[in-house]
């Protein structure tokens, strides 16, 4: 009897999880240059520090395939 409940619960989990067709996709609508300019403005205004700026620019460059 317990096995039936367990199997039913597993089947329901697969059915319910299969009902969702949502896919999270992030579209980047800015250029690498625009992102770097925005970070530079943040640096100049004091919103971020030089080390943070350097790390963020490096991360952006790597994620966008720039060398």
Straight-line distance between termini: 61 Å
Q: How many DSSP H or I helices?
A: 3
SS elements, strand count: 0
Shape: elongated
**Proportion of residues in β-strands:** under 5%
Sequence of secondary-structure elements: HHH
Q: What radius of gyration results from the CA coordinates?
A: 23 Å
Largest sheet: none
Structural class: mainly alpha
| Oligomer classification | single chain
Overview of the molecule:
There is one protein chain. This protein is an all-alpha fold. The chain has a domain at 29-67. The protein is 67% helix and 0% strand. The chain has helices at residues 2-18, 32-45, 50-63. The radius of gyration is 23 Å and the shape is elongated. The termini are far apart. The mean pLDDT is 79.
Offer a few descriptive terms.
67 residues; mainly alpha; 3 helices; 67% helix; elongated
Question: Topology, pairings included?
Answer:
Layout: H1 2-18, H2 32-45, H3 50-63
Helix pairs in contact: 2-3
Concise summary:
This protein has 67 residues and is mainly alpha-helical. It is built from 3 helices and no strands.
